[in-house]
Amino acid sequence: MSRTDEILARLSRLHPKLIDLSLDRMLPLLDKLGNPQDHLPPVIHVAGTNAKGSTIAYLRAFLEAAGKSVHVYNSPHLVRFNERIRLAGRLVETDRLNAALEEVEAINAGDAITFFEVTTVTAFKLFAETPADYLLLETGMGGTFDTTNVVKHPLGTIITPIAYDHQAFLGDSLAEIAGNKAGILKRGAKAVMGLQQDEARTVLDRAARRLGIAPLWQGEDFHGAGEDGRLVYTDEAGLLDLPPPALLGAHQFDNAALAIAAIRHFGLPVDAWALAEGLRRVSWPARMQPLRTGRLRALLPEAHELWLDGGHNAHGAAALARAIAALPEKPLVLVMGMMNTRAPEDFLAPFRDLHPARIAALTIPGEDNAHDGENIAARARAMGFAARGYETLTAALAMAADIAGARVLICGSLYLAGDVLAQNGTVPD
């Protein structure tokens, strides 16, 4: 176990629950540290159910193409905890991360605090200590009581599409979930809204109006779509004809348009050249990511394709299925694992029309709250899929190797995606 893992293991034992939505434990600790959340570069705060990470990836690419230095806070990580904290464009160095974690641990002095709270406090400390032009801040869950929701005056807020997820914490209806996400909206901060279902939009609109905010709405105030292999973006300021996003899938045109709208609406110093360059260079691991080299790729014949995607709910699965359907036809093999907070049936439903040749179900290694692979396989068979459980990822890939010219898609969980990247030797940087 690395020193970082040892520190994180100690911090995870400070509270009996992994998730306990509240700001009451964080605020006193932040105060002891001099309230670093009040000493940050201009903040763009992003909430939503899907596309938060992709939207932030586009914003970072645009701003960096324009010569700006950017902090980023994302969760969860895929392979190393360092991935959660990017300081002025670079992942936090391990020695600096360890020192900051231990300093916050000492100041906390054993008080009850959740893992996400204490690590977010550490991130704010690092962000406040390091000069940068902007901070792109992703919520972990929800909005109102999310650990990131202590920034009083963000430059702007973005709410990506809202769908059902984490109902045990955020509510059983889209209205309840949207009400929670709307908690990041702040009086005086401009807001941009992604494509929303009517129930969620009504709640978001009401919350914005109470704060005197007139949001920019995707599909109404701005549009982005693929046309002849290009991204055509329009808003009241005019039309932009841009290269397609480097991230694959039709949904990435929507995500890119949302980020472009935020750049323009928030008045960020990014011109059309930087937007185009950002679209070409953007990267975001485990989102329709082709694995063309590596230890796992070497287990498959040359004619096979190997893809990785961390989408894990019904909305994400639908976007993933559409992206796969847009590729040239090949036999499809799904290799999937899921956390037990989500239903395999909801994830698999969009793949019915793609008629996968086989589903290989796995228990995600090292995750106590993962669905058992045999359970996933049984539920997939009940839906009419050809499925069975496998003990290991390599065993599942060995099965896929026997299906001529197959397209292998590993999917269902960011935790599984992280394990795949680690086994393949493809560590995000």
Structure in a nutshell:
The protein is of the alpha/beta class and 429 residues long.
SSE layout and pairings?
Blueprint: H1 3-12, H2 26-32, E1 43-47, H3 52-65, E2 70-73, E3 85-87, E4 90-91, H4 94-108, H5 115-129, E5 134-138, E6 156-159, H6 167-170, H7 174-181, E7 190-193, H8 198-210, E8 216-217, E9 222-227, E10 230-235, E11 238-242, H9 251-265, H10 272-281, E12 289-290, E13 305-308, H11 314-325, E14 332-336, H12 344-348, E15 358-361, H13 373-382, E16 387-389, H14 393-401, E17 407-411, H15 414-424
Parallel strand pairs: 1-5, 1-6, 2-5, 6-7, 7-8, 13-17, 14-15, 14-17, 15-16
Antiparallel strand pairs: 2-3, 3-4, 9-10, 10-11, 12-13
Helix pairs in contact: 1-4, 3-9, 3-10, 4-5, 7-8
